[in-house]
Amino acid sequence: MGSSEVAAPWSTSHGDTEEAVAERQAAQQLGQRGVGFLDAPVTGAPARAAAGTLTSMVGGSEKHLEAARPFLGTFATKILHMGEVGNGQLAKALNNCLYNVSCAAMAEMLPFALRAGLPMPAFVDAVTSGTGQSFGFNQWAPLVLRREFEAPKHGFPMGAAFKDLETLVAAASAQGLPVPPVVAATLATYQRALAMGLGEEHKGAMVKVWEAQMGVRCSGTEAEQKK
């Protein structure tokens, strides 16, 4: 292998798990052979993947990043250097945790709003066009109102997506940092949803946790809400 060669896996590994440790070891071993290594996970959802407009978060040396930039540019229009090997994965995990927090917030707010007497379609319209909107709310709330929870048809299965929260908890523990309270609350909602057997449904199905607690059913029609 020549010195200009760079290995750049872009799947997501899990924080301080054996998989991530193996990735760092691979970087060291490849470096001894003159081959660069980058961890380059991506974010942006399937539509942007198809369009080649993803965002890539890259861990590794700037020299190796510049060598790999033409390849990364075939699927990512934004390529961000995050520091040393492993930091790309950490940035991806934190990004996904923020997304998961917004999904859990949606799951709490819809049943609360309905129980408080707000009409579901109007409330969802207000949030998705106002300052309370988020990628998670905008993505899942309309599907909740249609009671469409199928995965992978409408999104990644919740059980498989749980790894990002576990990654952040592991990273916090490894560095002696507290788990952020909003992440801890989101983790609790995820765990309750999985305990209810919702792991094969998408993240919007977390709403069922709070529907059960508040005795409501979020839907786009009054008839459905009374079921």
Automatic annotation (TrEMBL):
Signal peptide: none annotated. One of its GO terms (molecular function) is NAD binding. InterPro entries: 6-PGluconate_DH-like_C_sf, 6PGD_dom2, 6PGDH_NADP-bd, HIBADH-like_NADP-bd, NAD(P)-bd_dom_sf. Residues 18-83 form the 6-phosphogluconate dehydrogenase NADP-binding domain. Residues 86-209 form the 3-hydroxyisobutyrate dehydrogenase-like NAD-binding domain. It comes from the Eukaryota. This is 2-(Hydroxymethyl)glutarate dehydrogenase. The gene is Hgd.
